[in-house]
Amino acid sequence: QVQLVESGGGLVQAGGSLRLSCAASGSGYDIKSMAWYHQAPGKQRELIARISSDGSTNYPDSVKGRFTISRDSGKNTVYLQMDSLKPEDTAVYHCNAATIRIGDPYTTYIYWGQGTQVTVSS
Question: What is residue 88's predicted lDDT score, i.e. its pLDDT?
Answer without folding.
Answer: 94
